[in-house]
Amino acid sequence: MAQYRKKPVVIEATQWFKMGDHAAVLNNAWHNRPYIKTFEGHHLVTSGEWIITEENGNVYACEPDIFEMTYEAA
């Protein structure tokens, strides 16, 4: 079986803890819950998650342990 390595991609990321930490995090007025708009729909954000912005503008959240296993400072 062939093996493949993920191509290196530089991302922008901010660890989110509260409203105002990242402009992409919005507040749901109905449920008072923070969320981001992703290409898959809305995603609720919890304190400590990393908000990642890819080169193509896609935004998504990543749990801290997964972020640390996947990314390193560029």
Task: Tell me about this structure.
The protein is 9% helix and 34% strand. With 74 residues, it is mainly beta. Strand 5 and strand 6 form a beta hairpin. The protein has one domain.
Number of domains: 1
How far is the first residue's CA from the last residue's CA? 31 Å
Overall pLDDT metric: 91
Oligomer: single chain
Count of distinct strands? 6
Structural class comes to mainly beta
Strand order of the largest sheet: 1-5-6
Q: In percent, how helical is the residue content?
A: under 10%
> Could you give the order of the helices and strands?
EEEEEEH
| Unreliable parts | none
> Over the alpha carbons, how many angstroms does the gyration radius reach?
14 Å
How much strand content do the residues show? Answer: 25-35%
- Overall outline: elongated
Report the major sheet: 3 strands, antiparallel
Q: So how many helices?
A: 1
Task: Record the SSE blueprint.
Blueprint: E1 12-15, E2 26-28, E3 33-38, E4 41-44, E5 50-53, E6 59-62, H1 64-70
Antiparallel strand pairs: 1-5, 2-3, 3-4, 5-6
Top keywords for this entry?
3-stranded antiparallel sheet; single chain; 6 strands; mainly beta; 74 residues
